[in-house]
Amino acid sequence: MGLITETNQQYYQGAQQFIADGASGSFPTTFDTNLILGSFDPTDVDYALNNFKLFTSDTGLPGDFLEYITDYSVLNNTITLGTTAVPVVPAVGTYFVVQLKSLDGGNYGNGDALPLRITMEATSTLNSQTL
Length: 131
Prior knowledge:
It is a single chain. By secondary structure, this protein is of the alpha+beta class. The protein has two helices and seven strands, in the order αβββββββα. The protein has one domain (8-124). The longest helix has 16 residues, at 115-130.
């Protein structure tokens, strides 16, 4: 039996949360699963190849997360917003959640990633860390 190296949120929810620092638009994920990006654009046929979705919120409150469908790339499991020519640096305090999905079913692949559930659980995690 191997050592689990993911956080509770990663292991049980298949999600990882980031809060923008205003200096960088890159978010290095530490899942035990490599991120696969076919396209950031849901209207592109290659979007179905993605094994994750990216959500964002200005407040981090339940029901306030929306899927991020603007230019971004993935290299070595780091999500970078914008393009090489035009990088994007989100405002300080902007929340981002990476939600894994499965291409062949399983815990996260049988339906859409649920921003409300992610937000509530991420906020609970965040609140328990700041107490």
